[in-house]
Design brief:
homodimer; about 400 residues; alpha/beta; Aspartate Aminotransferase, domain 1; Aspartate Aminotransferase, domain 2; 2 domains; 7-stranded mixed sheet; globular
């Protein structure tokens, strides 16, 4: 009796649940320290001490009726939105005001809000494989059609020639995610410029507006001093979705924001629509205490050295064992080529060594597996002998 | 360039915003203490001290990686769901387990989750006027069709004869909200029994499942010892949506839950669907810190005496002035008959005395206005001279 749309999704989700339960089962048999669960993007770095201090100060200093109350605008507290805008302007030379910021229930909430605001049934949303699999569900929620660009497995930069041919008059949005989940690749400034040029030409050709949605939960996780371009500066119709899940290690608290710049087509209406969508989708407003927390912690930085050590150790370890993998410049994922075409068979083989990884098919890129290295350093180090045996199997 | 569905909603929302801005404008001219804003259901009672203490204890005692991390299941922490189930069982003699509880982003989030899980396009959702206007948007989000039962303005209990004639083979859900927004009426046990009987007979007649969705954010706000029936005990296909917005004065924190009992048709699939819907709609999970807070504060009670004093003072004050109104048994709203047919004209007249109330048309019941008395006692007392002048105008 559940809805037809949900029938398939429930079936798929039981596969994910099965993996989770398998992890629990293995942990019970072998002990949790002997199970190497690389399947989830749940940060293992604790939230900075300043988050705790900020919460305690807010509890002592703010009026609880305001601190825990509905915000006047569904977009969130005016002072928080102002502070976020100001901070972006200082970092990226942008020119945002409070009105350009909508506080959201994480990046996932923000993406739903903007897609609800934009999509008519049958509108097309372009994504570049490999991509975060949830984009398909989010697009489907509003009866949009997901259009995939096939992966460039040399560089994992977007395939721009194919992109150009797949833009149609029904293309309403393009989602990019850089630093990328699942590859860790940062889209280069050159890529972004070319992409913007293609979209501008197509907008003119078709007389349409094509929105670039930049999903940026991993913005702060970039290594070796790599710069992550701020996309509103390259293309007017850009909407940015951000989350503090990774930068402040608050994924469960569901706090992030959307930026809708004045330069975006119909920005005033789009901002109003995002406000309404926040309300009617049932978010109502981003959790209020956490809105105030992120304002207090705007200048806080994640301990990137933790992830970096994991990255270096796992990347070098796997390369030495003969695995093929591009070195990630950001996020906390390695996207490793499966030694056999059917990467699900490879995932199953890894399980024999208590190693849990996610098949690339979940990201529109079969033949690869994703390893989330946001785990403890011990998990990385202790998993390497298992990976060695796994490599041995495929030699 | 925003979606067609959103165009109208944005237009409507600017009416609400206009009222809000009008309130701000009046406050600037006359001082906030001389503006009587009865338009919003934002509790003026602060969260109990135990909420603050619970948060501080959680910050000091829990591992921040767990406290602020994704929950293993999208339905929320197992211990929290267990505690919620246990508490319901103790209070209402039910028999729930953790699996029957899905923690949600408030009641609004929960309603979206359950409607997403249930509705196919064209499915009908029945509501009883007057009803919370957002039900229309929530139903529309999943291409359902809202079917209104006209109000019984004598008792504001549901009109069951009309209800019976409007159930069709496409009826997928019926939403009830008791204690009711906007009337404050509690649906009687007799009403509930009859309603359940009608639905059971129709299920048999059509060979369908009809889900009763009980939206209960006001459950704890019942006066004069009135009992609010727990609906799962009267009808198997009942799903309960709850929120701590009012009971713990945490509306901005977005924390509530759904109960999907084992007795509900297809309950296992429905529970799985709610889990998936929580994820793909972008909630991902209810805010984690607040999940733990409500667990710690399960036995906490709102200071109902505060609202009760407001209720008595305003109800008696308005009756003495000749206004017609049913005495509310729950929630924190008065639903007052407009002295003129066009209640929007009455709202406009009230504004002259700096009194802001919401037209009944917003609740599918024109000719009435809603007064939210979750304000300070001073606001109630000081508004009465304005109401007196308003009454004078219509004598």
């Amino acid at each position: 009796m559940i809805s037809k749309k949900m029938e398939n999704m429930v079936a798929n989700s039981s596969a994910i649940r099965a993996m989770f339960e398998e992890g629990n089962r293995l942990a019970q048999i072998y002990g949790p320290e002997n199970v190497f669960d690389f399947s989830l993007g749940n940060p293992n770095v604790p939230a900075p001490e300043s988050v705790k201090n900020a919460i305690k100060a807010l509890l002592d200093e703010e009026d609880p009726v305001v601190l825990h109350g509905y915000t006047n605008s569904n977009a969130g507290y005016e002072d928080v939105r102002s502070a976020v805008a100001q901070s972006l302007n200082e970092r990226f030379g942008t020119d945002f005001e409070a009105r350009n910021i909508t506080m959201t229930v994480g990046a996932a909430g923000g993406l739903n809000v903007i897609l609800k605001s934009l999509l008519n049934p049958g509108d097309e949303v372009i994504v570049f494989a490999p991509y975060f699999g949830e984009y398909r569900s989010y697009t489907n929620n509003y009866d949009g059609i997901l259009v995939e660009i096939s992966p460039d497995t040399e560089t994992f930069q977007p395939k721009l020639d194919e992109f150009e041919t797949k833009i149609t008059p029904r293309t309403k949005a393009v989602i990019v995610n850089t630093p990328n989940n699942p590859t860790g690749v940062v889209y280069s400034e050159d890529t972004i410029r070319k992409m913007a040029g293609i979209m501008e030409a197509k907008q003119k050709e078709y007389g349409t507006d094509i929105y670039l949605i930049s999903d940026e939960p991993y913005r702060e996780l970039a290594y070796d001093g790599v710069e992550v371009p701020y996309l509103t500066k390259y293309y007017d119709n850009t909407v940015v979705g951000y989350s503090y899940s990774k930068s402040l290690s608050l994924p469960g608290e569901r706090i992030g924001y959307l930026v809708i710049p004045d330069e975006a087509a119909d920005s005033e209406k789009l901002i109003a629509a995002a406000n309404v969508a926040t309300r009617i989708l049932g978010f109502v407003n981003a959790p209020t205490l956490q809105q105030k927390v992120v304002k207090a912690c705007l200048n806080e930085k994640t301990d990137i050295s933790f992830y970096n050590r994991n990255r270096e150790t796992l990347y070098n370890g796997l390369k030495e064992l003969g695995f093929e993998c591009i070195k990630p410049e950001g996020a906390f994922y390695l996207f490793v080529k499966s030694p056999v075409e059917d990467e699900k068979a490879f995932c199953a083989a890894a399980k024999k060594y208590n190693i849990l990884v996610v098949p690339g098919s979940s990201f529109g890129c079969p033949g690869y597996v994703r390893i989330a290295y946001c785990v403890s350093y011990e998990t990385i180090v202790n998993s390497l002998p298992g990976f060695a045996k796994l490599a041995e199997e495929y030699r």
